[in-house]
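Journal club side-thread
Mid-discussion, someone asked how the predicted structure for our own chain would compare to the paper's figures. Pasting it here so we can look after the session.
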Amino acid sequence: MHDLGRPSPAAADAAKDSSRPRPPWGPAGAGDPEARLRGLFARLEDELRHAESAAAELVRGRPGEDGAVRVETVDGPPAQARRILELETGARSTFQAFLTGLNTITPVPHTLAPPVPPSGEAPAPRLSAPPEVTYQLLVDRDFLAEPAAVAALEERVARGEQVRVVDHPLLKLAVADGEVAMVQIDQERAVLLRPPLTVLVTELFAAAWRQARPYLREVAELTAVDRQILQLMVSGLTDAATAKQLGTSPRTVQRKVRALMDLASVTSRLQLGWYAMRNNWI
């Protein structure tokens, strides 16, 4: 005699069988195999079309189920430059950016300093975030080789902004407060991201920042020109390119590099670069 409050073993087995997932074409072994395959492919095709439609909606910046726009495309260099400026001036706590010489959105003088006004006009002030905003700028070798790059970065460092350098090319990227980010896809298109997608960009920036070296760290034994020469030398610029950046001659650069090698007691530029990095000269 079975307990009326508990199903019999046979009933339990039947319920367990009924709960097992069935193939999308119906009960196992039922129907024509060719018909089952056609049904499966039709279902997969419908799911693929749905996924493609969802991706297209995301790229076009359509609202999601919660009404929030996650991704927005930004087309053309002028629109991208305007968006970056909006991110910077609208930042409340942090502004992070990759700066690359391969960027054609905004030339270096426009990126880090006020644009040069027409003759006879007063220079316009550079728009920036409030003083309490922490800046972290990561620049690559191509950026350092751009005209006015060193002078512009010197101004940034003097204002207390954090600048680091990497030797590999960077893409154009900017993040404000970890909440809104713009990432350049190519010269004509970028995407504007909002949470939760901004987590991907902030993680990318943090990883690159950890691997970068500080730009022009203060060292008592070195002059500002010494530090600039070391920075540019380690970044791979030639003596001629370094001299052009600093407004001097290649011979002067070579003489100063020789003096720095003597100061470090090394016999090659490679050793000098290694010594400079190990001893926080740059």
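Post-session note: The longest strand covers residues 180-186.
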